[in-house]
Request: fold
Amino acid sequence: MNRADRHSPLETLVRTLSCRVDLDKDDRSAILALPFTTKTLERHHYLVREHDIATRSGVILSGYAVRSKAVASGERQIVSIHMKGDLIDLQNSLLEKSDHSVQMLTTCEIALIPPEEILKLASERPMVGRAMWLETLVDGSVFREWIVNVGRRDARTRIAHLLCEFSLRLKVAGLGKDSNYELPMTQEQLGDATGLTSVHVNRTIKALEREGLIERSDPRAIHIGDWRKLAEVGDFDSNYLHLRENEPALAG
Amino acid sequence: MNRADRHSPLETLVRTLSCRVDLDKDDRSAILALPFTTKTLERHHYLVREHDIATRSGVILSGYAVRSKAVASGERQIVSIHMKGDLIDLQNSLLEKSDHSVQMLTTCEIALIPPEEILKLASERPMVGRAMWLETLVDGSVFREWIVNVGRRDARTRIAHLLCEFSLRLKVAGLGKDSNYELPMTQEQLGDATGLTSVHVNRTIKALEREGLIERSDPRAIHIGDWRKLAEVGDFDSNYLHLRENEPALAG
DNA sequence: CGTAGGCTTGAAAAGCGTCAATAGGAGTGG
DNA sequence: CCACTCCTATTGACGCTTTTCAAGCCTACG
Reply:
């Protein structure tokens, strides 16, 4: 257990929670005063598995992770992608039995916080509680968009949409430079996220590349040539991310 | 504006919120003391539309409703189905701009509550706030399962899964009798919920019927012959609904 | 170098969509 | 009570998107 200090890792959490509500100085101090432990998890490792009893909530300090669920046939579906600043596993730890797994895409540093401390904080400081509730609501909004993405869009649109979402969220998290980024997922994982096979993901990405919508110096390095055009192909409207005006604009 | 009384419509909300946390007498009174208006909305009517500024949250007192989003091609995707006791539009009204529409499947009675009163209650009575937060978390869990359903399951499994979910939720809401129920959706709406076309929904349902997994006296009247078998076909595990033990068991 | 994981590509099959036509039931107005 | 209309369910034929299976290739890493 560390104590909050000037450069606490929990500053990341403060940043995330301040995003949608105005937190006063005491609120911020209370967040920074949360007990936590920092843990590094390697690629492929799980923070929690489906059906387990989750005992820890966490904030991602660096790296990328996904939440996923398995189906009877053995395939899996990724239901969300997470990066720096995201609260993960609140869902599982507050609801007792995990309904999904949380797995690292890359090596991740995570600040683990006991769930009961989070509940306590939410009770004692209503604005912090509200911030976390809103964060959960936005989480839900992103899930809804994903249902739409896999339910009613063709492969080309799905992939373009995912690339747009990832790009914009990187920017909001302060990780993006221009429209270039390193996609931390294999094409099989992209398939798991879009409800496609890796083979079809490959063909679709190459098609997007041939159309000039994206460029790739290597398979994972995505460069978005014309953001607006890709957003149009991907039927992408950032509304569902519920970003505030003070956050980076969409155009870029 | 009515005042809370012995048989307030808001008892429905108390029932829902008591489901996952223990609320004391004062918590219950505070919920019943919320200002509200009761409104009847006809079939097909909207409580709120995508992109609108939502100003009212509601609890369904009777009837059925769906949340949906439209895609560029004009098709739509239903992202959840709601019934008595469900809180709808908290998402939209707390997040300012609506990211989805809420539409009635049947005539609905809804108790409308000003969102700011809900926020106030959540701040003043932390356990009520926690109950609503948990409700939002469960909402998210159901969305995750729907992503999996449309993303990684074939038509037969998807439909069987939806029929199981609906049946179980009816039972939990106190609306189900045995394994018979009236499905308040057209086959086109079922298609919108499962990411299929109405034509394929029709064929799939008829196939399920031929297999003896369900019986139908008329197109909407579903009778589940063998719950366990349908759940197996539908890859259905009720875990994601996060029901408490004191709620009706799955087998039936 | 040698192995493993990820990427790429081709050919064929399958599942689901599209188009189109028919039928039944509920409500409406004459 | 009948004619009419609209909405929903049903079914067939055909086509297309995506999957499946399979093979080869590249690159990182031990």
Summary: Chain A touches chain B through 53 residues (CB under 8 Å). Residues 126-152 of chain A form the longest helix (27 residues). Chain A is about 40% helix and 20% strand. Residues 248-252 of chain A have pLDDT under 50 and may be disordered.
